[in-house]
Every structure is written in structure tokens, then in C-alpha cells.
Design a protein that fits this description.
Elements: H1 6-15, H2 24-35, H3 43-50, H4 53-65, H5 68-88, H6 102-179
Length: 180
């Protein structure tokens, strides 16, 4: 008869599944229970450890591009460009982009064309972080649920053992009282 590993036993006893049917999260949780270690991990730290240079860069660009500081600075640059080309340089016949600001429109289109996919990359990364957080939450919840189940089983066994002991004492008292 082949002996089963503690992981096999936990898998059958707590999840009612053979180890081959477990997913990665369930395997990690059972391994943590067997080893007596915690499974809680910070999703943000884990995602940051796995991030590539491009992903970190897209997060930074999205953080800057989506801030009030950027909006205010960009508005100031646009107003400065318009005032410079419509009011100041026009008096010296040196306006390099007079109204209707065709060059400015080209620059704005270029910035939008570059910034939009970078922000989308950052949003994709954020959704990946959210999926990772959900997966880690599942692991933590499963671990808590299985630990509660284990405590219930332990208490049930202790209560049954205690009841057996009490029944034994009652039987012994009944026998000694009947014999007297």
C-alpha cells in the first residue's frame, strides 16, 4: 500500500479533491498549511517586483499626464504659445505659427498619439494588478476558510473524545450503582 503525502491528505480532507484537480492557488494554500506558513502577500509589492522597465515607465507617464500639475502646466504652455504667436511675435513679423496654429495642432496631435497608448498600457497594468490582488485575496480567504474548518474538526474530535469519556464514566457509575 502506497503512503500518501500530507498534501494529498489535506487535499482530500479539506477540499474533497485529489491533488491533480487543484489549481495553483489551492496548491499554494495547502502547502502553506502543511508548512505552517502564512500566505498573505501584498499585491502591489508583488506586481512591482514583476514589472518591466516599460511598465514602470508607462505608470510614471500616466501618473504625470493625469495630474493637475500637468494640466495646469500644459494649459500655461498652450496659452503662452498662442500669446507669443498672436500678440508678441506678430509685431516683429516673426510669428512662427500664427493663427490658426497649425504647427501647435500637429504637436498636440503627436502628444495625444503617443500619450494615449502609454496610458492604455498603464491601465492594462492596473487591471493586471487588480487580477493579482483578487487572486491573492482568494488565497487568503481560502486559507482562512480551511483553517476554520480544521479548527472545527479539531474541536469536534475533542468534544467527541470528551463525550466518550463522560459516557464511560456514566456507564461505570451505572454498573457500580447496579451492583451495590
Amino acid at each position: 500500500m502506497a503512503t500518501s503525502s500530507p498534501l494529498d491528505d489535506l487535499s482530500h480532507r479539506l477540499l474533497g479533491k485529489p491533488p491533480g484537480e487543484l489549481n495553483d492557488e489551492q496548491r499554494r494554500v495547502l502547502a502553506g498549511i502543511e508548512a505552517g506558513t502564512t500566505v498573505s502577500r501584498d499585491a502591489a509589492d508583488l506586481a512591482d517586483e514583476r514589472a518591466t522597465f516599460g511598465e514602470r515607465l508607462s505608470d510614471r507617464v500616466a501618473a504625470v499626464g493625469g495630474s493637475w500639475g500637468f494640466i495646469i502646466a500644459f494649459t500655461a504652455v498652450l496659452l503662452g504659445w498662442m500669446i507669443l504667436n498672436s500678440d508678441i511675435l506678430i509685431h516683429f513679423n516673426a510669428a512662427f505659427d500664427p493663427y490658426p496654429y497649425i504647427f501647435l495642432n500637429l504637436l498636440l496631435s503627436t502628444v495625444a498619439a503617443i500619450q494615449a497608448p502609454i496610458i492604455m498600457m498603464s491601465q492594462n497594468r492596473q487591471s493586471a494588478k487588480d487580477r493579482l490582488a483578487a487572486s491573492l485575496d482568494y488565497e487568503t480567504n481560502l486559507r482562512a476558510e480551511l483553517d476554520i474548518l480544521r479548527v472545527h474538526h479539531k474541536i469536534d474530535h475533542l468534544v467527541l473524545a470528551r463525550l466518550d469519556a463522560i459516557e464511560g464514566k456514566i456507564d461505570a457509575l451505572a454498573k457500580s450503582g447496579a451492583g451495590a
